[in-house]
Amino acid sequence: MIEKLNEYVLKYSYGGKSKMSLNFKVSDREKFDAIWTLLNSSYNEESGWVIDYTIVDIYDEYAIVYNYDNRCYARVNYTKNDEDNTIALGEFTTIYAMYVTENEKNALEGLRAMNGDNFELIDEKFSTAMSETAEANGKLESANSQIEEYSTKISELEGNLTTLNTEKETISTKFDSATEKVTALEAEVTSLKEYKAAIEKEKKLAVINTYSSVLSEDAIEDFTNRIDEYADEIALDKDMAYALKKSNFSIFN
Q1: Which of 42, 65, 85, 157 could share a disulfide with 50, CB 3.0–4.6 Å?
Q2: Is 28 helix (H, G, I), strand (E, B) or coil?
Q3: Which residues have C-beta within 8 Å of that of residue 123, sequence separation ≥ 6?
Q4: Strand ranges for the chain from DSSP E
Q5: pLDDT tens by residue, 70-95
Q6: List of long-range contacts for 175-178, beta carbons under 8 Å, 24+ apart
Q7: How confident is the model at residue 208 (pLDDT cuts 50, 70, 90)?
Q8: DSSP labels for 61-83?
Q9: In contact, 78 and 62? CB cutoff 8 Å
Q10: What distance separates the 2 farthest-apart alpha carbons in the chain?
Q11: What is d(CA 212, CA 233) in angstroms, rounded to the nearest whole number?
């Protein structure tokens, strides 16, 4: 009785005016019967009661059906009109059943859930991912090429640095050797100067000694204290001779 009421729209009118209307939506059983009837238009006496489709399952906007003639499954979109309790079929899309394990089923459902509940988007996203991967690989290859180029330059610079360090060590060794020679020469020069000064002093002392008997002790002491002021014995001899002349001029007569 309830299913029969769903076929009608009940309207109550008062005084010729519509007061209230009740719309009974199509039940699941009626959806099944309506879709099945639309799918099997040849199921009548005239056509020999031919059944083309069986319904596997029904969802809110589409039904899964099986075609006996083609031996394949299809997804059939449908629309329902609650105003006049009618159903119209839409696009047919061939689908395929696959036998998978529970783990494979869960993986497939996870993939579909991540792609807008549509397996078709997987290929699109996979292509995008592959394109991005190819682009990333290209960048990586370019980066590796640059790294190799930089590594080569670094190796060259390290080789140059090694050469420079070797040259530096050679120059440092030569510099140290030259420094040692200069130090030795300076020591030799100093020794020679000291030797020369000693010889010159002996000559000057010899000059002073020649005047020790003719000049006063004070004069001899004064010339001895200033002996280093004279460049050589000749200059000293000249001053001592002049001092002698001043102190005892008669010695030259």
Answers
A1: 42
A2: helix
A3: none
A4: 9-14, 17-23, 53-58, 62-67, 72-81, 86-95
A5: 999 999 999 988 788 889 999 999 99
A6: none
A7: very high
A8: SEEEEEETTTTEEEEEEEEEETT
A9: yes
A10: 186
A11: 15
